[in-house]
Amino acid sequence: MKREQRNQQQPANPVPKASRPPLTAKTDGQLRLIRAIKSSSQVIVTGPAGTGKSYIPAITAADWLAEGKVNKIILARPNVSVGKTMGHLPGDQDEKMLPWMVPLLEPLTERLGKGFVEYCLRSKKIEVAPIETMRGRTFKDAFVIIDEAQNLTLHELKMIVTRVGEGTQLVIDGDVAQTDLNNSGLAQLILLSKGYNIDCVSVELGLDDVVRSGIVRQWLTAFYKEGL
């Protein structure tokens, strides 16, 4: 029997899906968001569910990672307390947070392929970052998405926007109307950016930009009109 060769070739790392159709806007608001991300390194997008405010940044981040425009993708959202539900999930804190990142991970997987996304999570080319771990860091050559930012305080958002280094794209998304805080930091951040002419583009999506389904738009219209 032949001896096994010692210098066997290592399996190649997964690669992103080769076929990625161009990202196209379905509404005027989505077109403004796509253009904002291309033109500004910091973008704040607000709007109701189903408008693509999380989907479009995630798809763009996937394309930029595949094309080498950024070295990594960083995903973050307000911390959910590790109570009974999360406490029973296996893994460390980062792994426990993965189920809460599904709205961002699904479009990444759609765009890049499951194998490549799993490889990127293992190698930290896609990083799920709890908000409290961002203090003291500087993000370079990264695409950073802060999801559900309506539930962040201004102090937390201050920490995030001052972490951005060279070659980094930051997109902060949320629905101010659905905040659980008495005074959403996201609303304050938008006012600051406009009041001081900061090089940060704010895009506001509305009910006309809901593309999830017709009945979703009907429900959202009812909820918004009733202030719910």
Going across the major beta sheet, what is the strand order? 3-2-4-5-1-6
Sheet with the most strands? 6 strands, parallel
Shape: globular
Number of helices: 9
Unreliable stretches covering 5 or more consecutive residues: 80-89
Question: Can you count the beta strands?
Answer: 6
Run of helices and strands? HEHEHHHHEEHEHEH
Strand content: 5-15%
Tell me the structural class.
Answer: alpha/beta
Give the averaged pLDDT, no decimals: 87
Distance between the termini: 74 Å
From the alpha-carbon coordinates, what is the Rg to the nearest angstrom? 19 Å
Q: What level of helicity do the residues show?
A: 25-40%
Describe this structure as you would to a colleague.
The longest helix is centred in the first third of the chain and has 12 residues. About 4% of the residues have low confidence. 37% of the residues lie in helices and 12% in strands. The protein has a six-stranded parallel beta sheet, with helices on both faces. It is of the alpha/beta class and 228 residues long. Helix 2 crosses helix 5, helix 5 crosses helix 6 and helix 7 packs across helix 8.
